[in-house]
Every structure is written in structure tokens, then in C-alpha cells.
User: Fold this.
Amino acid sequence: MTRPPEIAFFPEASFGAALNCVGIAQELQRQGAIPVFICHPGFTGVFAEYGFKEYHLPESPESSAEAIEDYWQDFTNTHVPHFNLDPLAQLPTYVEPTWKAIVETAMAVEDDLARLLSQIRPSAIVLDNVIMFPAIANAGCPWIRIVSCAETEIPDPAVPPYLSGLAPEDTDAIATFSAAYASATEGIHRRYNSFRKKHGLPALPSPIFLEQSPTLNLMLAPQAVRYPRKVPLPEDRFVFLEGCVRTENQFEMPRLPVNEGPLVYVSFGSLGAVDTQMIKRMIDVFETIEARFLVNVGAMIEAYTRVPDNVHLGGWFPQPSVIEEAALVIHHGGNNSFCEALYHGVPSLVMPYCWDGHDNAQRAQATRVGRRIDRADWCAASLRDAIIGAMQDTEMRQRLAKISDAMQRNPGTKCAATAILGAVQREPERGRVGAAR
Assistant:
């Protein structure tokens, strides 16, 4: 009998990429495939929680879950002051050190990843990351790229540079940023290309760290916020997804002492949760608004000793289910949060602090599906006005309702799963198809 295709997902060690892949894997499972996950240390159990088999990259003293958590905790604490800088100023202070950490991670796991892929022998590998691992390119099966950050990750003359937070018309600023980005990443990019050469892969042009897949590229960029490109992407290799919202348990709203008013969901991701001082300032403002606030504070919940009666703090929420009930989402511009808000027709108030958050904040403002608020330049009155204004913006809500309807009629998870299975059928063997085992 022909065995169903086994699809190995390898998301980066971030919850955004991990949970984006979960949504696609759920649909692949519904369509008869066997999704499995390769886990970085520290993500053990995340995918098993959704019922998927996990393969774990081995831990060493340096790569144990505790060591990685400590490393990124120290990294984030070091860079919290840099979160207040504009994207150009973040290039030497945050972007370059982050790329260095990403490249070092790819180099550290290469041999173990190659061994795992040899053991799994998948029909295809789905990579949701910002860097290529040679073990994936050399695995002997099709590999599929997911672009789950901003669309700017795939360059085009009409699209602003990745991580810049710029608009297409900002031509002088684009030239300045592009030159500065190439300069900031030059050294680590050269080191990465040497690593690629050692493992038989061609060099990539600066400042690219991940090539396009020759098989299939999935772009998490809904039509409503997509850029008009000067050079259209090949339709046989690029598929745009109208969101990628996973199935979550139904959310049960806790009853608050003050339990009236619209629901506002607040989340800045695991990195942003480290900045407890800023979140405490925001909570003081929330107390003055006639609304209920759910605030995701990650692992930092013990830092909060005073919680207003209209605020509920949690270390984790089933985010898609919460957003479905919300009147407003305040977030950092992560693509999952941005797309989930669009999918459910909820306005975004985006307060970016790094990476693709800058690009998504600009795009939310430009396409009038949300508002951008500067992370460092707000006071109690301006934040309060921004929250109330976003919730009362009838025109924005009407626009979002139409966007939500279009996205839900063409869910990205289903589109992605169908495209992945189609790609596997087009490249049926290449030495490692499950049916050959």
C-alpha cells in the first residue's frame, strides 16, 4: 500500500513560526498527510500538545532548554533599551547581533539536523525560518519555504527593505537603510556563506540569508495588505496565503470584578513581555478605560503586584480564540497576530519594537486596517485616545469586516496544505518519498 506523505516541519525557535506551522499541519492532517515536527531545544511538547509527533534536536549543556532560555533572556534584557530606537538605529545595536545569533544557531545544529532528517526520511520538508540550513537543502527531498514574517522578506524594487518600517515612497530613506543594512550584516553574511560552501551550497548575495525554494514558497501576506510588486513572483512557485489561523480550544473569558465593556487583547510576544515597566504603564491607562483587558505577560507574571479590576493577566492565551471575541488587539506587529486580527476583522493597534514588527506596523497604518503607535513616544492621554479611537472607528471596522469575510472564505491553512501536497506529487521521489519505504 502507498503510505501517506510524511511532511516534516522545521520552524524557527519562536512561537510565531511554530504556531503558524501548527495551523498548516492541522489541515495537512485533515487531508490525509502525516505532519511531524523537528524541535529546537526548548520547544519540546509545544507540537505534541496539538497531537503531532516530535523529533528533538539533541541537547548539550550549551543548547539545553534552560541554557537557551537564559541566553535569550539575557539577550533580550540587554536589548530592551534598543527597542525604543528607530529601525535604522537598530541595525548595529539589535539586527546585527540577532543575525549573528541566528547564524551561530544554524551552524550548531547542522550535523544533528542532518542525522534527524536521515532518520525521518520525509516526503518533503517545510522550513519556516529566516535562514537556510544546508542539511535541508541536502536531504534529497523537496523543501518548501514559508515566509511568515512580513512580505518585505522577499525583495522587490517596489517593496521597502526588510525590517525598515518604511513606505514604498520613502525613496531617500530606503537607499540609506539598504546601504546601512548591507554594511551591518556584511561580516556575519560572509561567515555564513563560508559555512554554506563547506556543505556544498552556493553563496547567497548580500544581505540574503535564505534563498527561494525551487519547489514552493508560501507567503503569509493577505491580499488586503499586500504590496503591488514591480516584478511579479512566479505563480508556479509562490502561493500567497490569506492568513494561517490554527484551530484552538474555545476561550472562556474569566469574570472580572469590573466585567463590562468591549474586550481588548494585549500581547507583545515572548520577547516584548520582558519589558514589564512599559506594560505596567499601559495597565495604568487601561484602568481608566471602560473596557475589559486581557494582557499576555508571558513568563513575567510574578512581576505584577497590582492588577486593576478590569484587567486580567495571563502567561498564555489561545490567541485566535481570544481575538475572535475582541474589539481591539494591541500587539507588536508580529505577522501571526497581525493576520489573526485581519482574519477575525479586528482592528490592530501596533506598537512595534523590532524585526518585522516595524514593517507590519507601517503596513497596518498605510492600508487603514489598524494604527501605529510609537513605542517610546506616548503618554497616558495619547494611548487612551488611540485605544478609544481605534475601537470607535466605524469606517475601519466596515473595511475589516469585508477583509475578514474574504479571508475566511479562502483560509490560508487549506490553501497551504493543498499546495504542499501538490508539490510533493509533482516531485514524487528524489530518493526519500514515504511510499518508497
Summary: The chain has two domains: 6-245+411-432, 263-409. The two ends are 11 Å apart (CA to CA). The first strand starts at residue 6 and ends at 11. Residues 430-437 have pLDDT under 50 and may be disordered.
